[in-house]
Design brief:
Layout: H1 3-14, H2 39-45, H3 48-60, H4 69-82, E1 85-92, E2 100-105, E3 107-109, E4 115-117, H5 121-125, E5 126-127, E6 147-151, E7 158-162, E8 165-176, H6 185-205, E9 215-228, H7 229-233, H8 236-241, H9 266-281, E10 286-291, E11 297-302, E12 305-306, H10 307-327, E13 330-333, E14 347-355, E15 359-360, H11 368-387, H12 389-394, E16 417-418, H13 421-432, E17 467-469, E18 474-476, H14 486-511, H15 518-533, H16 545-553, H17 562-565, H18 572-580, H19 586-639, H20 647-670, H21 677-705, H22 716-721
Parallel strand pairs: 1-8, 16-17
Antiparallel strand pairs: 1-2, 3-4, 5-6, 6-8, 7-8, 9-11, 9-12, 9-13, 9-14, 10-11, 14-15, 14-18, 17-18
Helix pairs in contact: 6-10, 6-14, 9-10, 11-14, 11-15, 13-15, 14-15, 19-20, 19-21, 20-21
Bound molecules: adenosine-5'-diphosphate (ADP) and magnesium ion.
Magnesium ion (MG) binds next to loops.
């Protein structure tokens, strides 16, 4: 029996869905937040004054009062121990986009030979992981390798359960000994403050001086693939690179659209229920689940939360998907393009901002006054996206996402905004209109006329736009499935803070304290923004070739690959806004740029090695075996004096030659070393990737002709359809 036949036999034995939950005994909804040291738990367990001080800290994103830390830590420890925890971990988010944790036990031996559990305020607030091997892009030399983790009070501690014990997890920011950000969380917190500060100025002009913090919000839709673990074990490429580096297309792909929103297979549903229950325990409000476009592809999306919490929770969603998939005998693939020729996976970031007084500030509202305020924020976003489209492109750049952006399934690398017909029409009227001449036909008068009803219906949405208005929020669709949403959120918060700052300054100048001038001032500013930045609005088909041309005429950037996209991070204007709003200093942003380039180069390096190795040790030998079979058969036929068909042999032999030549070429290309990371990235992109692809094409042709029982790798058809 061939290796693949054995795999299929094993899978068929294990296909029955796993019953892992006693869901009838305890409804999954009742476990929500069970493992979270939430505000309500704290309210019950902390002295009143301490609770009040802490909740103020959380509400205002301010710093924790060191004097109360011991009391909080002690309550947290008691709670965690009641839940079975023996250890605590400072969880942090390094620049690799992963989640990192360092565990310590509560245990302290005492003089009498026993042990007690200890957890002090200082260990709660500050940790010191030996994290010198995390990438810092030059921010830390080895002699000053120390990094500190500091509890982010706005993200609650939680218990992570595992079969043999539980761990108290404390979400932290990770900074160098000089206070430079080494992680993804620190800039999120800073960028949220920047946005709040500027938004307050606009709100004040519109009469909201409640001072209630404006927070950005995010709901991230996570797409992923599931494959059986047996396939995973037999595919070194998926194990090492997260994607298939070889594989001929399946005769049936996604052309029938029969998977999208189809009935969810039992085995997958069993997995989803368990994922959801685990996430509920952690207080993560996952809400929707469905089959996605490609066979074997699915989506999970939560109810939105504030950006900081949404980011931490999103990381937990990824960790949990992977963990629970294994439990169900499957592997969850978060890579942006695990299978060539089928839909890739994205992570749409739904984004807005709001405060406790007014709720969502990107909701158009019903009155002309609310509409005017909405239009101001919306215009600021139009301006920000136009001015810093390159930043939005750069923060979603990665080796993996390059396969997706522009592949006619995800938005192209050109960043534009979809507003929908009605809202575009409103902005066009503003662009044309003269604010003082009232009631000109078809011209909207700000502060007097109400907006038309904007469609919230999903059917009316444009799914090809990278940045789309969807009725009461924007959806940033270029984000990749495996990426942390921190980068995109930091970018959005920062560029919109800059834009809102601009708008607020203009409005303050134009009204100079006389609020009766506000509507005219708004009209003036909106018109100016439309004149200067209206070109970023595009409601058409972003996949069309004509758009590529038109976008170029409009002067919109189109960075197709990561080595083109990343260098904008160190453009002068980009460094300037990040430092002006105290989000990232010049050094911090440079270190990020270097780290991301390095990540890109490492990724492609590993992929190239894997291609060479698999081609040499798996595919080449299989092809040679087949060639030998064919040759022996031809020889025998000749001996018997029977006419034999040698075409398959000739074709196989020629493909084998091509394969060998490709491997040799790749190996020689890989021997070059570049000291300059950008030069190395360009080399990877321009030289290495095309040869990897060439080898793959030859290998895939071989897959199409080599005898099925000799083909060693699980096929696309098997991986995508066997569940
Ligand atoms: P669709 O697939 O149609 O875009 P989903 O229901 O899958 O819609 O996802 C929509 C996401 O948008 C959800 O996570 C939802 O919570 C989120 N969302 C809704 N309102 C806001 C908001 N004000 N800010 C951020 N995200 C929001
Ligand atoms: Mg969706």
């Amino acid at each position: 029996m061939s290796g693949r036949a054995k795999i299929l036999r094993e899978i068929n034995k294990n296909k029955t869905p796993k019953t892992t939950l006693a869901y009838k005994e305890k409804n999954s909804i009742d476990v929500f937040g069970e493992n979270v040291f939430s505000m309500s738990v704290m309210k019950k367990r902390l002295p009143k004054d301490i609770y009040q001080s802490l909740s103020k800290t959380v509400e205002n994103f301010s710093e924790l009062d060191g004097a109360i830390a011991d009391v909080v830590a002690s309550a947290m420890k008691d709670w965690a121990i009641e839940k079975g925890a023996t250890h605590y971990a400072h969880v942090f988010f390094p620049l690799t986009g992963a989640t990192a944790e360092k565990h310590d036990s509560f245990l302290v031996p005492d003089v009498s030979g026993n042990a007690i559990a200890e957890f002090s305020g200082s260990t709660l607030i500050k940790g010191e992981p030996d994290a010198s091997s995390f990438p810092s892009g030059g921010l830390r030399q080895t002699f000053e390798a120390r990094g500190y983790t500091a509890w982010d009070v706005t993200s609650p501690a939680y218990i992570m359960e595992s079969p043999n014990g539980a761990t108290l997890c404390i979400p932290t920011a990770f900074v160098s000994w000089k206070g430079e950000a080494l992680d993804k969380k620190t800039p999120i917190l800073r960028s949220m403050q920047a946005l709040n500060k500027q938004a307050q100025r606009v709100l004040k002009l519109f009469g909201d001086d409640s001072g209630k913090i404006v927070s950005s919000t995010c709901g991230a839709e996570q797409e992923y693939f599931l494959i059986d673990k047996h396939f995973y074990s037999a595919r070194p490429d998926i194990q090492v690179a997260g994607r298939t580096l070889f594989g001929a297309p399946s005769p049936k792909g996604q052309q029938f659209d029969d998977h999208y929103f189809g009935a969810i297979a039992d085995r997958v549903l069993a997995f989803m229920f368990e994922v959801e229950r685990e996430l509920y325990k952690l207080g993560i409000p996952v809400k929707t689940r469905h089959n996605e476009v490609a066979p074997g592809q699915f989506e999970v999306a939560p109810v939105f939360e504030t950006a900081n919490l949404a980011t931490d929770h999103q990381q937990l969603v990824m960790v949990t998907l992977k963990k629970i998939a294994k439990k169900h005998g499957m592997e969850c693939l978060l890579h942006e393009k695990p299978f060539a020729g089928v839909n890739g996976s994205g992570k749409h970031c739904n984004y807005s901002f709001g405060n406790a007084n007014q709720g969502n500030l990107l909701d158009p509202g019903e009155t002309p006054h609310e509409n005017a305020q909405f239009l101001v924020f919306c215009a600021a976003i139009i301006r920000g996206v136009h001015k810093y489209a390159k930043v939005l492109r750069a923060v979603v750049a990665s080796a993996a996402n390059d396969h997706r952006l522009g592949a006619n399934e995800a938005p192209p690398a050109i960043i534009s905004i979809f507003l929908g017909d009605q809202l575009t029409d409103v902005f066009e009227q503003i662009r044309k209109g003269v604010p003082t001449s009232s009631k000109e036909a078809g011209v909207m008068k700000i502060g007097v006329d109400a907006l038309p009803d904007l469609p919230k219906d999903a059917g009316d949405r444009n799914r090809t736009s990278p940045f789309a208005f969807t009725g009461n929020r924007f959806e940033f669709r270029a984000v990749g499935s495996d990426q942390s949403i921190a980068g995109p959120l930091v970018a959005m918060n920062t560029i919109f803070a800059e834009s809102i700052d601009y708008v607020a300054t203009e409005l303050e100048k134009a009204t100079s304290g006389d609020i009766s001038k506000l509507n005219d001032a708004v009209h003036y500013v909106l018109k100016k923004i439309m004149d200067e930045h209206g070109d970023i609005i595009f409601n058409g088909d972003n996949y069309a070739n004509e758009w590529q041309e038109e976008a170029a005429e409009r002067g919109l950037s189109n960075f197709k690959t990561t080595p083109e996209a990343l260098p904008v991070l160190i453009d002068e204007d980009v460094i300037e806004i990040f430092s002006k709003y105290d989000v990232l200093s010049k050094e911090e942003i440079e270190s990020r740029y270097e780290t991301y380039l390095e990540q890109y180069n490492l990724k492609i390096g590993v992929e190239a090695k894997t291609v060479a190795e698999m081609a040499s040790t798996i595919i080449y030998p299989a092809a040679i075996r087949y060639q030998t079979e064919l040759a022996e058969s031809c020889l025998k036929m000749k001996e018997l004096g029977v006419d034999s068909d040698e075409s398959a042999l000739i074709k196989t032999a020629s493909l084998i030659k091509d394969l060998k030549a490709g491997i040799d070429e790749l190996i020689s290309l890989m021997s070059r070393e570049d000291d300059d990371p950008l030069a190395a990235a360009k080399y990877c992109c321009g030289e290495i990737l095309p040869v990897m692809l060439k080898i793959r094409e030859t290998a895939d042709k071989l897959e199409d002709i080599v005898a099925d029982d000799l083909w060693p790798l699980p096929t696309y058809q098997e991986m995508l359809f066997v569940r």
